[in-house]
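As described in the Methods, two query proteins were run sequentially through the folding procedure within a single session, without resetting any intermediate state between them. The first query and its resulting C-alpha cells are shown here.
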Amino acid sequence: MPICHLDERALIHLQGPEAEHFLQNVITTDLSALQNGECRPGALLMPQGKILFDFLISRAGSDVLRIECRADVAADLVKRLTLYRLRAKVDISDIKQRSIAVSWETDSSPSESESTPIDGRFDKNLNVRRHYGDTPDADSHKMRWDELRIAHAVAESGRDFALGDAFPHDVLYDQNGGVGLKKGCYVGQEVVSRMHHRGTARRRLLTASGAADLPPPGTDLRADGKIVGTLGTVAGSKALAIVRIDKVKEAMDASIPVLADQTAVTFAIPQWASFTFPVSSDEAG
C-alpha cells in the first residue's frame, strides 16, 4: 500500500446548522450527493465561470464539512468564503498544522470513515484514501502520487492549471463529479451551464505520452508552430496536458506532430470520460 504525505495541502472546516446550505449555493459540487466516507472535487468559481479555488470536500461530522485545498491559498479561500457567508449560521476555520496523507491499492478495503474518506476522482477499485488527523508513516515519494494522477487524469491547480485561468470543463469536473450539473445556482453557474448545454468545451485535460522524457510543466505544446495546449504534471515520458482537442484532432488528421520543445507527444482521452475528439466533416460524411 503506497502512502504519501501531502505537506503542501491544508484543511478548512465549515461547521454549523447552515453550513451545507451555505456551501451548496456557492460551490460547484452537489452536496446533496456527497456521502459519508467519500470526498469529491469541487471549486469556487469567479462570476465569469473560471476556477478561483479548487479543492476536495468531505463530511467531518454532524453539520461539519471539510475542505482540503492548497496550503498556499487556504487563507484566501477562507476570506472569500467569509465574504459570501453574510448572515448564514456557519463557522469557517483554517485548521493549522494538520497532517494529510494519501494511500492507494490496499489489499483490504477499510470501512468508510470520516477521517479516511475515499477519493472519488479515482476508480473505487484503487481504494485511494485521504488520511486526515493521525496519518500513517509515508513510504513513497510524491512522484508515485504524480504518476497515479497522470494515469487516471486527475488534475490539481498549480502544475496542471493556474487558478483564474481554467473552466471546470477544462479539468473534467463535468466528468468526475466536480460540478453538479443539475443543482441550483452557485457562483459562475450560468457560464458553466451554458458551456455544457451548448457543447462548446474545447479545452480538455488529456493524458500525454512523449517519445522521450518530457520537458517541465508549463511547456507549450505546438503543432506546426502553433500553440495547441500546455503540459501539466510530468513524470518521465508521461504527463497531463490541457489542450484544444479540436486543434489536436486537426493535427492528428493531417499527420502533423505535436511537440513539447522537440519531443513528439501523443494524447489519449481518459477511458472513463464521455467526450470524444471532434468529428471532422469527412468522418461525419
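Immediately afterward, the second query was submitted; its sequence and C-alpha cells are:
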Amino acid sequence: MTDDEVLAWLRESDPSLRWKVERDLLDAPPATWEATRALVAREGYGARLLALQDEDGLWAGGAYFPADASREEPGQPWTATTWSLNTLREWGVDATALRPGTAALLDRNARWEYEDLPYWGGEVDVCINAFTLANGAWLGADVDGIRNWFVEHRLADGGWNCEWVEGSTRSSFASTLNAVIHILDDERRTGGTPELRAARHAGEEYILERRVRHRLSTDEVLPSVDRFGYPFRWRYTALRVLDHFRAASEADGTPPDPRLAEAVKVVRNARDADGTWHQQDPPVGREWFPVDVPAGLPSPWLTFFALRVLRWWSAAT
C-alpha cells in the first residue's frame, strides 16, 4: 500500500483507534476527531467493554485477576478490573461513560489479591500502582498515597522495580517504563506534583542512559525489545518506549533525545513491504474479545503507533 492507502485503511478502524488516527496522523479539526472519540463509548470495542462492567463496578469479579483465574490457563488473563480500566482509559473513553460512581464502587467493593488491600490505596507492585494511579486520576479517585509511594520507592539508579519487595535494588526496564507512562498520564489529567515529575524525569533518564535497548552493565540488547505486539499491556518494547517519549516531549516542551535514535531506526526497519507493521508478539492470555490481528498479519494499532512516532521524530529532528 502507498502511504495514502495505509492512512485510508487506518481510518476504517474501530472508533477507539480511528479518532487517534484522525487527530495525530490526518490533522483533522477537533470537531471531527472529538465526534469520533465520543463514539467509542457507544459502538465497537469500547461499547462492548463498557457493557461487561458489573453492578459492583468490577469486571470479572477481581481487581487484577478475574475471580475464576487459574494457574493452569495459558498466559495471564486480561479480563479483570484493572486491565479493563486501562483499556478504556487508553481508548479515550470519558469517565462518565462508566457506571455512575465507579470510583466509589471500586473503593467499596474492590480489594487487591495481594493481602486484600483496598483498591485505591494500591499495593506493592510498581506496575499495578502505576495503572491505579492513572486510572484513579481518570475517574477522580483519591490516589495521593500512590503519588507519594512512587517518590518514596524510586531506586538509587533512577527507576523502579516490581521486585523491590523481594530485596532488589536495581531498577527494571519494564517496571520503570510502566511507572513513567502512568505518572505522565496523571500529570496530564491533574497537574501531578513537582516531586513526582522529578521522579518521572529520573526514570526516563534511566531508560535513555541505556539507549532504550541495552543493559548498562554488558551493553547486550534486551530480549524481545524489538518484537512488537498489541495490546501493549505491561511489556517493554522499543515502540512503546518511543511512544512514551513522544508524549513526554510534547508535555514537557522538549525536543527528542538523540539517545532514542537507535530505537527509532529499529521501528522504521520493522515496517513490512506492504507499508504496515505486522503483529509479531501479541500477549498471551484470556481476553474479553480480540481487538487486533493474530501474529503475522498487518496490525492497524502497531501501524498507527509506529507512524505517529516516526512522524514526531522526523518533524522534530
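The chain is about 50% helix and 0% strand. We note this only descriptively and draw no conclusion about the first query from it.
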